[in-house]
Every structure is written in structure tokens, then in C-alpha cells.
């Protein structure tokens, strides 16, 4: 025992020394100091350097420098600090919050035609094109842009708006002439890169706004790409490609690389976009749902708050961590949060077995295999490498298969190791010279995987069982995988994408998130030119993710802004939300990828109908005061809020998160309705943007047992009445425990204004 104590006494000081020294290793921190100051950039930078010098010792004066400096919409900086220095600086009177820089991840033509078809409008998209007098500028914060894409041609576009203050930064592979009247601005920043193929990372400047990943080009063309005829991905999804607002201008802010997006850089890009004069910011980026802390340590929430304060709309992807609940991100009430759905087009690759039976799998592949020849078919566990666990071989785990036994065969594997991506499984099969790969994966069918020229397809468990049964009942089973064909008029659509993150929000359950759903599965849009099978470079490709859904909402918002230039961000958001559709192309309620009825925690209010949103009748205006009250109710101090908003705002005497339910949002969420306490009343106000002298009548659709009462039941808008309040009371005494979903609709004249609610009865 003594020797153990002696050993511990020797080791423990070493542990203390190591811990202490590790705390003194400088790391990158963001220092947020609230709303922008009145001083110029040079003076503000000097003030921030002076502040740094108060915590960094004189012997380390080389570290008294700013990596990023924020002074347009918000105030603050990022710098290298030790843990002790960061802790000391966090207590400084002018600092609102201080947090480590983190890595955010990048979360795409038929989709617009599909949305218009779903709208069944009383007017056409084309009828509004020439009336769109207001030039909308969209700021894309992403991974850069490929300016030569036909989607960014500027034919027919007028002069760049004089309010535009941005720049077109040059680089070795990007000239000022790459910008035009469509792509009016491009910036680049320090971005994150993996060093030497290992897990360490470093910051470096790419020195060019050019896209090296393809993500930024895809999202930008989805939001505002020009009309391009005969676009396709190597013959798939052929048609006319265009963005949701083809007449809008694009400014690209390259804040990301293939390794992610530093949060400090993302915040800098938001600050610059606001200064440059954009109308809408589109961000298909976010942190993991597991890393969410609070809004004052979230760079996107901080930047979006200041954007909203200055009249700039921010649209964000909700994340790709579905189908689990509480995974939605970018869920602050001042952010328009987007979920993903499919459209009425599918991509299928046929599996042909040696016995003549065929099965349809989901895939995007340009296989050169044909019906004329089949190849030996083998299950992964039967061709395992020596000493490999059967469970790994079944799943095409790297190193688990015997290359000699794989060569020349079509192999079938099960997706029992979700951490091993489809890309890796495909590479395992391809490297072992397999003729093709059939993957059994019930959940992957919602987003087809692009395997390029390698024969690949993905089937559900029921189909997979039939193929395995065929293998087990034949001595020499054979199969082939045919190239992908697109299937038009696919039903049902839209359906919630399996990967789309779900609500409720971890940080604010009394705001319904996501807000809305848009196409995000197998979307065709512009990319970096890609060579497939030695053919002419392909300028368009198919991608999936809430990253692809986000620019659909951005484009729709820009389209509405062009017709209604005086509408605020919250008015545009409300118009899209209250006119969304809750039915698929079979006329049935929306479903998820499991075939169950979808809930508002999956779809938000439903699928966008941009044309209907042009004339919503009534809108819910969420004001700056609503957002400040939200911060009060969420626990932020009055001092912090005043620093953020540059006002003498006073929090209401009563502040609790329950009161969040009554901020003037276009949907209602109540995280707790006590069965024993009777009614809970929520207040709202609607603003008339439609015809005068229209009387609206409220009707509620609620699940059995939940009583919903609206007062007043009718509202009439006459000449001098612009905004009218109303109350909604919920009684859960007879309702089922758990979340109850329903809607409240104000109907009058040609208008139907639908408001979704989610009430958690306990």
C-alpha cells in the first residue's frame, strides 16, 4: 500500500503540471461584445488590442493580435488565448460572451416546378417576373463558387444596385472579371484544413473565392441560378435548371473548406454580408446538435440576431441528424429554420438476379453493366478475410473482406455499422475489384448515393431478405446491377427526408422548430465540373441534405421580397409559413420516410408553396421587441440584452421560458400544458396585407380531447384597422399525454391563413 501511495505521490504532481500547462496552451476564442460601436474600424481595432493587452502578459506580447475583427453589425473579435486569459477576459465589463472557436459542418430541376405544381395558384410565376422591380441581393455563406457555371450568367440583368458596397476579391484562380451582374460579390477568409492527412488541423487562407468542394456552387444556383436549358447529371434529371429567384443577385462569402467552417470565420462572413448590403443571408452550415449550449455562444445565432435587427433575413438548414427528436439546430426564433423533403422524382437502379427476378434499388450510378451478363453473387459474411468478425464482414467494414474472394463478384452487405459511410463501403468493394455492391439499408433509401461509374444500389430490408434467400437456395447465385434511371411522377411526394433533423429544439421548446420544409433530396444544381467515365465535364450534379433545402427557402424568400420590397423578414417568413401545404401529390397528409403521418416537429408548418405566399392575406409580424423578450424569458440579463440591442430595453417583470409561447410567432409551441390547471392562453396579433373589408373566421383542428378556444372568433379589417390581436386557449384535461398537434385557420374571402400548434400535455 505504501509503495502505491509513493507512486501516486510521484505521479500526481506530474498530472497537476500537465493539466496546468495544457491550460496555458493558447487556443482560438471568439469574444462577443454586443452591438456594433459608433467608432470606425481602426479605432475599434485599437480598443480591442488594448483590451487583449490587459490579459496577455508582456512577455507574450506577440499574441496581442486579432484573427478576426467584428465591427459592422456586431462588435467583438477572435484571438489566441490561454484558458486562464479567456476566463479573465470573460469577466470584463464589456464582454457579453466568450467561447472557443469550433468547426461547423456543411449541412440540391425539377424541384421548383414541383413546388409550383403543388401550389395550384390563381396566378403564374411568369406573370410576376417583369413586375419584380426590387433587386434582391442574396449573401451565400458557404464554400465558394464556380463563376463559369452557366447558372451564373448575367444576360438580361440590369446594373448592379447602387446600395451594394461589397467587393469581388481576386486570387490566383479568380479575377474581378469572374464577377458580373449576377455574381456581384465574392470574399474569402481563413478556413480550416486537415494537416498532412492526419487529424490535426490548421488555419490557412485559400486566397480565392473559388469553390473546391462543390457545395457553395450547388446552393447558390439552387437559390438564384439563371435559367439553363437541357441541364442534367450525365443524362439523369434532364430539364431546365433555375433558381427560386433567377433575377436575384448573388454574393458569395467563402467561409468553408472540405474540412468544415470555423465558427469565427462564419461570424465574420455574416458581419461582412450585412455591411455589404445583402437582403437575405443563406447558411447551409451548423454545429452538431450535441454541442448546442446557448444562443450567446452560437456564432450563427449571434450573427443572425444582428442581421435581423438591421432588416436582413437569415435562412438556415436545420441539420442532418434525423430521425431522432431534439436534433434540430439553428433554431433561434430570428432564424428561418428549414427541414428537408423529397420531390416527385426518384432514381432507381435495377438488380437482376440469375433466376430472372428483378428488384428496384435506390442509387445514382453510371454502371456499364448490362442485362446480357450476370456475375457471381456473394454475401459479405461468406467472403470474410481471415480472423475478421462476421459482423464486420456482413457490413463491408474496411479490412473485413478477402480481396481474392471478392474479385469479380457482385457483393451484398448490410448497413449494420452506421459510422461506416456508404462512400467507404463502396470504396471497400471497389478496391477489392468487386463487380458491384448491393447495400441493404432501410434508412438510406430516402437519399440516393452517388457512386459514379461503380455499380451500386441500395435496397430495403424486405428486398434484401429476398436476395439473401436467393443466395442461400442456389449453389451458384448470380446478379448484375444496371445503371440508374430516373422515375418521374414519383409518389408520394413530398415526404420528410430520413436524415432531416427533428424538433423540438433543445434550447427553446416553446418555439416550434423546424419552421418549414423544402426539397432537399436528390436536387439537381450547378457544381464544379466533374468528369465521369472520360466524358465531357458535367456542370450539374445531384446532392441531398438540409443544405439543399435551405436555398429553396432562400430563393422563395427572395422572390417574395422582389414583389413586396417593403415586407420585413418576419412578414416574408409568416407568408411562407401560413400558406404552406400539408398534403402530398396523392392528396393525403404528409408522411415521413417510415410511412407514418408526419408531425410539425418533422415538417414545421408543412411544405413551401411560394406562389401562394405572394398573397397570404394576413401575416404575423415578429418584432425586435419580441426577440428581446425571448432573450429575457430565456434567462439573459437585462444588461446583456441592452448591450446586444443598443437600447434601454427593460425586461418584463415576469420572465420565464413559459412566456416564450406568447411572442408573436407564426406557429405555437407549448412545452408544458398541465392537465390539472385548465386553460392556458396564448396571445397573437395578425397584420392585414390583403384586401380591405374582409371578415376572417377562426376554425381549430385539434386532436381528440384537446379543447381549443379562439377569442374573438371573427376579425374584420376595415380601412383604419391594420393589426388585430387575438387569444388562443388550450385545455388539456381530456387530452392524451405527450405532444398534441393541430392547427388554427383564419378564413376570409380568398384567403386561408393556417397556424400550426404543438402542445405538450403533462
TrEMBL record:
One of its GO terms (cellular component) is extracellular region. Residues 663-759 form the Subtilisin-like protease fibronectin type-III domain. The active site is at residues 142, 215, 547. Residues 1-22 form the signal peptide. It comes from the Eukaryota. Residues 199-221 are annotated as: Disordered. GO terms for biological process: proteolysis. InterPro entries: Peptidase_S8/S53_dom, Peptidase_S8/S53_dom_sf, Peptidase_S8_Ser-AS, Peptidase_S8_subtilisin-rel, Peptidases_S8_3, S8pro/Inhibitor_I9, S8pro/Inhibitor_I9_sf, SBT. Residues 135-603 form the Peptidase S8/S53 domain. Residues 29-107 form the Inhibitor I9 domain. Keywords: Hydrolase, Protease, Serine protease, Signal. GO terms for molecular function: serine-type endopeptidase activity. The keyword Plastid does not apply. Residues 204-213 have a biased composition (Basic and acidic residues). Belongs to the peptidase S8 family. This is Subtilisin-like serine endopeptidase family protein. It comes from Theobroma cacao.
Amino acid at each position: 500500500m505504501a509503495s502505491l501511495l509513493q507512486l501516486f505521490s510521484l505521479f500526481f504532481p506530474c498530472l497537476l503540471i500537465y493539466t496546468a500547462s495544457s491550460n496555458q496552451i493558447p487556443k482560438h476564442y471568439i469574444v462577443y461584445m454586443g452591438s456594433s460601436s459608433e467608432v470606425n474600424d481602426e479605432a475599434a481595432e485599437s480598443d480591442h488590442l488594448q483590451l487583449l493587452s490587459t490579459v496577455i502578459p508582456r512577455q507574450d506580447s506577440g499574441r496581442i493580435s486579432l484573427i478576426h475583427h467584428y465591427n459592422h453589425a456586431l462588435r467583438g473579435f477572435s484571438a489566441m488565448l490561454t484558458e486562464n486569459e479567456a476566463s479573465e477576459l470573460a469577466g470584463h465589463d464589456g464582454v457579453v460572451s466568450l467561447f472557443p472557436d469550433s468547426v461547423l459542418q456543411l449541412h440540391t430541376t425539377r424541384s421548383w416546378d414541383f413546388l409550383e405544381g403543388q401550389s395550384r395558384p390563381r396566378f403564374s410565376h411568369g406573370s410576376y417576373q417583369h413586375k419584380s422591380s426590387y433587386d434582391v441581393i442574396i449573401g451565400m455563406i458557404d464554400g465558394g463558387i464556380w463563376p463559369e457555371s452557366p447558372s451564373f450568367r448575367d444576360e438580361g440583368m440590369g446594373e448592379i444596385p447602387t446600395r451594394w458596397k461589397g467587393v469581388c476579391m481576386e486570387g490566383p484562380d479568380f479575377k474581378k472579371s469572374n464577377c458580373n451582374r449576377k455574381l456581384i460579390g465574392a470574399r474569402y477568409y481563413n478556413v480550416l484544413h486537415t494537416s498532412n492527412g492526419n487529424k490535426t488541423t490548421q488555419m490557412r487562407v485559400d486566397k480565392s473565392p473559388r469553390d473546391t468542394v462543390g457545395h457553395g456552387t450547388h446552393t447558390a444556383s439552387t437559390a438564384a441560378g439563371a435559367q439553363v436549358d437541357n441541364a442534367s447529371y450525365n443524362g439523369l434529371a434532364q430539364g431546365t435548371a433555375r433558381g427560386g429567384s433567377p433575377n436575384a443577385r448573388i454574393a458569395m462569402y467563402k467561409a468553408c473548406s472540405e474540412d468544415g467552417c470555423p465558427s469565427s470565420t462564419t461570424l465574420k462572413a455574416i458581419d461582412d454580408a450585412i455591411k455589404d448590403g445583402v437582403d437575405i443571408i443563406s447558411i447551409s452550415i451548423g454545429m452538431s446538435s450535441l454541442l448546442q449550449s446557448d444562443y450567446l455562444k452560437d456564432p450563427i445565432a449571434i450573427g443572425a440576431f444582428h442581421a435581423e435587427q438591421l432588416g436582413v433575413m437569415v435562412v438556415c438548414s436545420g441539420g442532418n441528424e434525423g430521425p431522432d427528436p431534439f436534433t434540430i439546430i439553428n433554431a433561434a426564433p430570428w432564424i428561418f429554420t428549414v427541414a428537408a423533403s423529397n420531390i416527385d422524382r426518384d432514381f432507381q437502379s435495377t438488380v437482376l438476379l440469375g433466376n430472372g427476378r428483378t428488384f428496384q434499388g435506390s442509387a445514382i450510378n453510371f454502371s456499364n453493366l448490362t442485362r446480357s451478363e450476370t456475375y457471381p453473387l456473394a454475401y459479405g459474411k461468406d467472403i470474410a478475410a481471415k480472423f475478421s468478425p462476421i459482423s464486420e464482414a456482413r457490413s463491408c467494414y474496411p479490412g473485413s473482406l478477402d480481396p481474392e474472394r471478392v474479385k469479380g463478384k457482385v457483393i451484398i452487405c448490410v448497413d449494420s455499422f452506421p459510422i461506416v459511410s456508404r462512400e467507404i463501403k463502396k470504396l471497400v468493394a471497389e478496391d477489392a475489384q468487386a463487380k458491384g455492391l448491393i447495400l441493404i439499408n432501410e434508412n438510406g433509401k430516402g437519399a440516393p448515393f452517388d457512386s459514379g461509374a461503380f455499380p451500386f444500389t441500395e435496397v430495403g430490408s424486405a428486398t434484401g431478405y429476398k436476395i439473401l434467400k436467393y443466395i442461400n437456395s442456389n449453389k451458384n447465385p448470380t446478379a448484375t446491377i444496371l445503371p440508374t434511371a430516373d422515375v418521374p411522377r414519383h409518389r408520394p411526394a413530398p415526404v420528410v427526408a430520413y436524415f432531416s433533423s427533428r424538433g423540438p429544439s433543445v434550447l427553446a421548446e416553446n418555439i416550434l422548430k423546424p419552421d418549414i420544409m423544402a426539397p432537399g433530396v436528390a436536387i439537381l444544381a450547378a457544381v464544379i465540373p466533374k468528369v465521369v467515365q472520360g466524358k465531357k465535364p458535367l456542370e450539374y450534379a445531384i446532392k441531398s441534405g438540409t443544405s439543399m433545402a435551405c436555398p429553396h427557402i432562400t430563393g422563395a424568400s427572395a422572390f417574395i421580397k422582389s414583389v413586396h420590397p417593403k415586407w420585413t423578414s418576419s412578414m416574408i417568413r409568416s407568408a411562407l409559413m401560413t400558406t404552406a401545404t400539408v398534403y402530398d401529390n396523392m392528396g393525403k397528409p404528409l408522411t415521413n420516410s417510415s410511412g407514418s403521418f408526419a408531425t410539425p416537429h418533422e415538417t414545421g408548418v408543412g411544405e413551401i408553396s411560394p406562389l401562394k405566399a405572394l398573397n397570404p392575406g394576413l401575416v404575423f409580424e415578429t418584432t425586435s421587441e419580441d426577440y428581446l423578450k425571448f432573450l429575457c424569458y430565456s434567462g439573459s440579463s437585462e444588461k446583456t440584452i441592452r448591450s446586444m440591442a443598443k437600447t434601454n430595453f427593460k425586461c418584463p417583470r415576469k420572465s420565464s421560458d413559459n412566456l416564450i409561447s406568447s411572442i408573436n410567432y407564426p406557429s405555437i409551441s407549448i412545452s408544458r400544458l398541465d392537465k390539472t390547471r385548465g386553460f392556458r392562453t396564448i396571445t397573437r396579433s395578425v397584420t392585414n396585407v390583403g384586401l380591405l373589408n374582409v371578415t376572417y373566421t377562426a376554425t381549430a383542428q385539434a386532436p381528440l380531447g384537446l379543447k381549443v378556444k379562439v377569442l374573438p372568433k371573427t376579425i374584420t379589417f376595415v380601412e383604419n384597422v391594420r393589426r388585430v390581436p387575438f387569444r388562443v386557449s388550450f385545455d388539456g384535461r381530456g387530452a392524451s399525454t405527450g405532444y398534441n398537434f393541430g392547427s388554427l385557420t383564419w378564413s376570409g374571402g380568398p384567403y386561408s391563413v393556417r397556424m400550426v400548434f404543438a402542445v405538450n400535455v403533462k
